[in-house]
């Protein structure tokens, strides 16, 4: 049985897919060795989070890589603009994820990110609180590169949100606003980004497609999400529902 943990209790707490490693606040607990561990800087000192409630903690599938955000410089302890890091538990290596290929750090206001199963590809959001975030893709060894804004059929992407990624890291689904550059009108939209082909596809668009809590199947053919709006005529219950979209056929079904 998993022992009771009461460590930095107001933080997000997550379990790795192997059910052996846990991130609790700013520490990892290994149920095999019954020991705590945590990310450390180059001097071996423990790294603190700026605010555990905003830590955004998650794992790669096998639990090797843990991802977190912090407003404390890992080496100096000084306050910094929020950064996203990947911690390699076996080696203790820290890698800045919210860092462009040229070494500059990206402004992180939205902590929603998506991680591939091997922990080597991350879809993250960076931008201003006023004008909304853009989609960036971080790849191990390459740094983060911007993928939006882009213009699709005369519509520009804005306010990217709620990314989810297939385990292989090749397909990213997200919600955004599409703005017509000529008329200035905007609609909500569900988009897919094919990382290998560097191509965007509009899956659904309309005034009601400001949805949230996206989750994709492993092969990317099914996309689940929540919506306040009734997206099909049969939805008459007047409450938030879960929908499942077949990304190949475009068929939308209500699951709740």
Structure characterization notes:
- This protein is mostly beta strands and 256 residues long.
- The protein is 0% helix and 46% strand.
- It has strands spanning 13-15, 21-24, 27-30, 35-37, 58-59, 65-72, 79-88, 94-96, 114-115, 121-128, 132-139, 143-146, 151-152, 155-165, 171-180, 186-194, 199-206, 212-216, 222-227, 241-246, 252-254.
Q: Topology as H/E string?
A: EEEEEEEEEEEEEEEEEEEEE
Strands ordered across the widest β-sheet: 13-14-15-16-17
**Extended strand count:** 21
Number of helices: 0
What does the radius of gyration come to? 19 Å
Return the average pLDDT rounded to an integer. 79
Structural category is: mainly beta
The fraction of residues assigned to DSSP E strands is over 45%
Give the fraction of residues assigned to helices: under 10%
């Amino acid at each position: 049985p998993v022992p009771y943990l009461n460590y930095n209790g107001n933080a997000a707490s997550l379990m790795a897919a192997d059910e052996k490693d846990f991130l609790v606040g700013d520490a990892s607990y290994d149920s095999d060795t019954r020991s705590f561990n945590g990310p450390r800087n180059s001097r071996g000192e423990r790294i603190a989070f700026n605010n555990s409630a905003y830590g955004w903690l998650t794992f790669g599938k096998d639990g090797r890589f843990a991802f977190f955000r912090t407003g404390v410089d890992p080496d100096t302890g000084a306050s910094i603009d929020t950064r996203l890091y990947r911690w390699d538990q076996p080696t203790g290596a820290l890698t800045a994820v919210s860092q462009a290929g040229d070494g500059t750090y990206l402004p992180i206001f939205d902590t929603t990110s998506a991680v591939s199963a091997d922990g080597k590809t991350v879809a993250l959001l960076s931008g201003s609180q006023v004008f909304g975030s853009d989609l960036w893709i971080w790849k191990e060894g390459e740094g983060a590169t911007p993928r939006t804004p882009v213009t699709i059929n005369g519509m520009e992407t804005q306010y990217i949100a709620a990314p989810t990624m297939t385990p292989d890291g090749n397909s990213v689904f997200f919600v955004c606003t599409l703005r017509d550059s000529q008329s200035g009108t905007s609609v909500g939209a569900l988009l897919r980004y094919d990382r290998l082909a560097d191509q965007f596809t509009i899956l659904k668009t309309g005034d009601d497609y400001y949805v949230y809590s996206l989750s994709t199947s492993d092969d990317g053919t099914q996309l689940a999400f929540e919506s306040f709006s009734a997206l099909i005529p049969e939805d008459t219950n007047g409450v938030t529902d879960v929908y499942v979209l077949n990304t190949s056929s475009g068929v939308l079904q209500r699951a709740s």
